[in-house]
Amino acid sequence: MVNGDEAHEDPGRAASRLTGRPAGEARAGAGSPIEVLLNDDIPVMVKRGDAPGAVRAEVAGLRWLAAAGAVRVPEVLGHDERWMVTERVPTGRPDPGAALRFGQALAALHGAGASDFGAPPPDGPEDAFIGLAPLRNTPGTDWPRWYAEHRVLPYVRGAVDRGTLRHREAEVFERVCVRLPELAGPAEPPARLHGDLWHGNVLWGADGEVRLIDPAAHGGHRETDLAMLQLFGCPHLDRVLAGYEEAAPLAGGWRDRVGMHQLFPLLVHAVLFGRGYADQALAVARSALRT
Is the bond into 235 cis (omega within 30 degrees of 0)? Predict the structure, then answer.
């Protein structure tokens, strides 16, 4: 439960309460997260989550990713049901060497595994979020079936309900789901995914090491994280992929499956942001049906 005072407190007060250290006012800026200076001039990031379970899901995801000892994440310094305080990561410019190391570390993160496809992080709720969209982490053992039932079709229905997709267009995705067993490539064990791996969630640290933020962590197929990196672009992507392949080669034909893995994030964006992403998702789905 969150009491009335905590529901209306500002980021500085939240940071002080959760870290046990006096904090100054939040630095100029809007939105969330926002930077706050603690009393010893140490900057921290303070993020507010208004949806029930959102903070708990993010904290559990960060700690699950950190437990793999692979890609680094910002340390969680304190949290409750509404607020999360993490270390602030000084950022620098992306460079090829950091990208290569990131690819190798991402392979190690995926290799740490998960109990099932769809498995939430330990202590994380099944009902989580990807960005502002609900994300239900329902465990399954067969990836093509799980991907269809819990990552593609729920967002197709959401887009139809919002008028972003037409009923006839939804049938295109349903046909793709029927063919997923033949399109999915060789079976793989569940990987430990970041789950929302667009370039905005990749921090290039000033120390030359990448950190990941804002996870929608769950057990999934490792090609899904890589497909999302490619969907919205990533600095030095060729070096990231080279490092990944060096550490954990991908199954043959993976490049042909990128679009199939991009259906999930494209449909999420169609639900949240409208028709342009629905058109992209339809183009990918129709291309898959032609293979």
Answer: no
The amino acid at residue 287 is S
Q: Are strands 191-193 and 218-220 parallel, antiparallel or unpaired?
A: antiparallel
Instruction: List own/partner pairs for 276-282 with CB under 8 A and 24 or more apart.
Output: 278/159, 278/164, 278/165, 278/169, 281/173, 282/165, 282/169, 282/172
pLDDT value, residue 1: 42
Residue 151 CB contacts under 8 Å (≥ 6 apart), including other chains: 263, 264
Cβ(47)–Cβ(106) below 8 Å:
no
At 196, list the tokens. 């929302």
Mean pLDDT score of the chain: 93
Instruction: Locate all alpha helices (DSSP H) within 152-274, ordered by sequence.
Output: 153-161, 167-183, 222-231, 237-247, 258-273
Contact, 289 vs 176, CB < 8 A? yes
Q: How many helices (H) and strands (E) does the chain have?
A: 11, 11
- Residue in 196, 207, 225, 238 annotated catalytic: 196
The H or E element containing residue 188 is none
pTM across the whole model:
0.93
* CB distance 31 to 47 below 8 Å: no
Q: Are 158 and 135 in contact (CB under 8 A)?
A: no
| Mean pLDDT score, 10-22 | 92
Helix, strand or coil, per DSSP, at residue 259: helix
Taking phi first (over 0 means left), then psi (-120 to 50 degrees means alpha), and beta for anything else, what does residue 251 get?
A: beta
Residue 40 annotated among the catalytic residues of the structure = no
Q: How many CB atoms lie within 10 A of CB 29?
A: 10
Strands, E assignment, 32-159:
34-38, 43-48, 76-79, 83-87, 127-130, 133-136
Structure tokens at 260: 């199939």
